[in-house]
Give the backbone structure.
Amino acid sequence: MEYNWPEQLKPARHEISSDPNGSVLLRIPQSGKAIETLPAVSIPGFVQRTVDAFPDNMALAWKEGENWKNFTYRQYLAEIRTVAKAFIELGLEERHSVCILGYNSVQWFLSDLGAIFAGGIAAGIYTTNSPEACQHSAEMSRANIIVVEDEQQLKKITKIRSNLPHLRAVIQYTGEPKEENVLSWNDILEIGRKASDDSLEQRLRNIAINECCTIVFTSGTVGSPKAVMLSHDNLTYDATAIMERLRLTRGEEHLVSYLPLSHVAAQIVDIYLATCAGAAVHFADKDALKGTLVNTLQEVRPTKFLGVPRVFEKIYEKMQHIAAQNGFIKKAIASWAKEYTLQHHLNLINGIHSKSWAYALARTIIFSKIKEALGLQRCTFYCSAAAPLATDIKKYFLSIDIPIMECFGMSEASGGHTLAVESANNLTSIGMTIPGLKTKIHNPEPDGQGELCMYGRHVFMGYVDEIEKTKEVIDEEGWLHTGDLGRIDEQGFVYITGRLKELLITAGGENVPPVPIEQQIKQELPFVSNAFLVGDKRKYLSLLVTLKTEVDATDGTPLDVLLSSTQETLKSLGCPAQTVSEVLKDGPDPKLIAAIQAGIDKTNEKATSRAQRIQKFAILPVDFSIPTGELGPTMKVKRRIVEEKYSEIIDRLYN
């Protein structure tokens, strides 16, 4: 059966709006590159286009017990329609939302697309949100339906359900709900299969490309999260632009192994990039970061692998632990192989196409086996997104022939704006601007640094009910002001050097961007998990550091036990310890103090002024995390929270 609906635009006068019922002018230029002038398409049309072209290609794959199951794109569309019909039957109104609270899964994808097909709005909620934060999201998006993953997430909604006047139904997609008035996923499928197609067809005919179909909530490191409205064109265009940048051929085998992400913007990129390419998405299970990830990779053997930095950090830590157990001969061979392989990739970055026999030998004999053990023997593209990946981690993976590319974006720009690829990559930039999009530096200083600004069809419509805040970030010419300090070099590489709002202004009036200094400290001291610069309104800079530790497998809370790699480092320094408590008992060992000070000294050597040199530091008793409040959902540090929590330690550094 073929489904047809008009690809319409509703009347609009402005490029921005704060009304979920509103529509906007699209930023399609009259002339320009082919990618810039692509015809606009709705999300249902976007999905239909891929189904028509590749009906029997695998779309989604997931594991039930020991067996993999999958949907073809034809089955995927049928299931989306079933869910959409169920949502309409349950009371989803046009321009009202379906809130989704869970990790990456088939049901997350179907809920997202089902809401949009039904003329509603898909709104993801961070899995780390408190009940109060969930209520804020549901209220801002006028949620008629909330879809939760399991009992743990359901408890949050149960606490606030009576406070949500628009709410019509709650659905739990994993396991059978034990609470009354909560539907299971099977209930949804049954309701949808029994429902008529007529109401869905009417909703599809009412959809306009230039209206809101998705809401993404900002991470809320300062104040309440803002509700970012994204149109159909924002999402479908950005996915197409990213696919062009990656030079993906539609319909080819792109087995992309996705992780159990709770980062909402990343989940959205998953959906539309995979659909655009006609690719298959394989879902890792919830325990991926607790040890099952490699099992999934070995079974799937992906050709494209996308993950958040923590994924690559976990692989790095595991491999460091394994390497530490090797004997002298194996260590010597590994060091030789990594040295030549790292140099080979650094040469490529610098435009030197060397044909080193040592690299060819290492790649064939050593690193092919490592990739096979990781399930990455077919992988041709590795990407890290959602937060910066430390330079030393990137260097390590280069040394074992796994070049990891960075992707940078914002919730306000549909998820992707710059992307590194092997032919255009270096260790410190966030890649180049994706073709069809534009980047500029606003009010640059003599050194070229200024505020990073973005322009393109991927820039959001506006914040729900906050037109003034929308106008603060989107200027009259349509440029999105990111709040990031950055620069663009002569080759077109984009760099982030700090945050405007995070600038520390010392007592002497000097502006100090903390982020690049913190990143440099972590590069100099690999056993440091978080480095936090202090100095606003103070006469000099100080530093708080946390050591890398194990985390609780259930909720990610940092534990007292040091990572094995951290223990090995401390042992090599001559101050062995197994826990942070041991490190801090009776004061840190002078040898550890000296090692940290050496890293600070190297960082200070690169300071652009005396005001940017760190004078004192302290080791904190516990690492930062989302559950303990120091990090937001996108892993950004909540500076005010850290300063309040450790105010006594900070005060001692200045007394």
